[in-house]
Amino acid sequence: MSEFRMTIAGKTTDNGATFGVINPATGSVFAQAPECTREQLDAAMNAAAEAFKDWRRDDARRRQALQDCAAAITAQAAELAPILTQEQGKPLAKAMEEIMGASFWFQYTSTLEIPVEVLSDTDTSRIEVRRRPYGVVAAITPWNFPLILASWKIAPALLAGNTVVLKPSPFTPLSTLKLGEVLREVLPPGVLNIVSGGNELGSWMTSHPVPRKISFTGSVATGKKVAAAAAPDLKRVTLELGGNDPAILLPDVDPKKVAPQIFWGAFENCGQICSAIKRVYVPEKLYEPLVDELANLARGVKVGNGMEDGSQIGPLNNKPQFERVKELVGDAKKHGARIVTGGEPVGGSGYFFKPTIIADIQDGTRLVDEEQFGPALPIVRYSKVEEAVEKANATHFGLSGSVWSSDPARATEVAKELECGTAWVNQHLAILPNTPFGGAKWSGIGVENGTWGLLGFTEIQTVNVAK
Ligand code: NAD
What distance in angstroms lies between residue 147's CA and the mean position of ligand 1's atoms? Predict the structure, then answer.
C-alpha cells in the first residue's frame, strides 16, 4: 500500500507518528495512517478559517467546484475501491457503488439552491430571509460508509459557503485520506482539510475554538459526548446517530415475496448500516414461513473476503464489533432463543460471522432492544398490529422503520404511527440525495440530504431595509 497522508491547507503533510489499520478480512495491519497532532489540527482549522474568507463569496465557483469534485471521484474510483474494501471489508463491487454514490451526491448537491425569501417589499421597507454559512465545519464520520457519509457532509457544507475539517474513523481512515488527495487537485487550499487519528482527535475537534458547526455521524453514546462538547461554545450540531429499525409485516403479506427485500434490508454491508432492519415483527400465521425463507436466504449467501470475486457479505469491520455481535447472539441463546441458522463466527483470522436468523425471541432480549450492527436478525411474533407498533416504538431509537403489506394505503397509515425520521412502505434503505434523512429521539438531531440537509449548514439572517 502506498503512503497515506493528511491534507492540510491544500498540501500533503509529513507524517510523524502513525497508527496501524487492520484489514478485517485477515485481522492483520496492512497500512499505516497518520496520527494528527494538536499543532496539525490547529493548522487545519486555521487554514479552513482563512479559506472561508474568500470561498463564501462566489456561489457559481462553488457550484462548479462540486461538479469538479464529482468528476475527480469518478476518475479515481478504481483506485479508491480496493482501499475501501481492504479497510472496511465490504465486497469490491459494493465499494465501487459507494464511491460512485459519493460522486453522485456531489453532482446532485451542486444543483441545489439556497432560497432567499422576501417576506415583504413595500414602499417603506423590504424584508428578506437569507442564509449565511457558519464558517468552519468540523465533520466526523464512522467506519461503515466512510466515503458516502463524508460526501453527505462535504458537498452541502461547501456549497453553502463553509469550509471543512473532516476526520474519518480510526478503523477506516485510508479511503478518506485518499479522497483528500483527489479533491486537493480541484479545490482551493484550505477549503477541505482531512485529518486522521483516534477518538481523542474527535474530541479536540469538537472543543476547538474555530469551528462553528459540528456535523457528526456515529453512535448515540459518542453523539451525546459531541453535544456536550459543543455546548460551552454553543456550536451548532447535526447528529446522525444509531438506529434499531423495526420492520413490521402486516398479515396480508406474502412471506416468499418480501423475504429477499427484508433479508437485504438487514444484511447489506454485513448489517452495519445505521438504518438497516434490526428487528422484524411478524404475525403468528406468517411466522414460520417467513423464518424459513429468511434462513434459506442466509444459508445461500457467500460470505468472504471482499477482494474475492463472488463475495456478497464481507467480515465485520473491527474486533470490538465482532465481539459485540458474538456477545448479543450468545445472550439471545442463553435466554432461550432459537438459532435457525448461523449463530457463530465463520472461523479463521478475519472477523467473519455467519449470517444469522434468530427466532422465538422477544422484546426485552438485548438482541432485540439494542443496536446489533451486524449480521444477526431477530424475528419477533405479534398478535395485533397495534401491539407491533407499540413494541416498535418502545425504544430510545427513532431512525427509520418499515411496514410491509399488499395494501400500501393501509401500510402507510401504520407507517405514520412509527416514531422515527423515515418511515418506509414495502421497502427499506431507500436513501436518496434529494430526501431528508435523520433520526427522531436518540437517533439524532437535524437531517442530512436534500435542501433540508443543505440548510443545516446555514443560519438565518434577516435583512430588513427601511426605504
Ligand atoms: P462511534 O461513535 O464510535 O465513532 C464515530 C466517529 O466519532 C469516529 O470517527 C470516532 O473516532 C469519533 N469519536 C469517538 N469518540 C469521540 C469523541 N469523544 N468526540 C468526537 N468524536 C469522537 O461510531 P462507529 O462505531 O464508528 O459507527 C457506528 C455507529 O454509527 C452506529 O451506531 C451507527 O448506527 C451509526 N451511524 C449512523 C448513521 C446515520 O446517518 N444516522 C450512519 C452511519 C452510522
Answer: 14
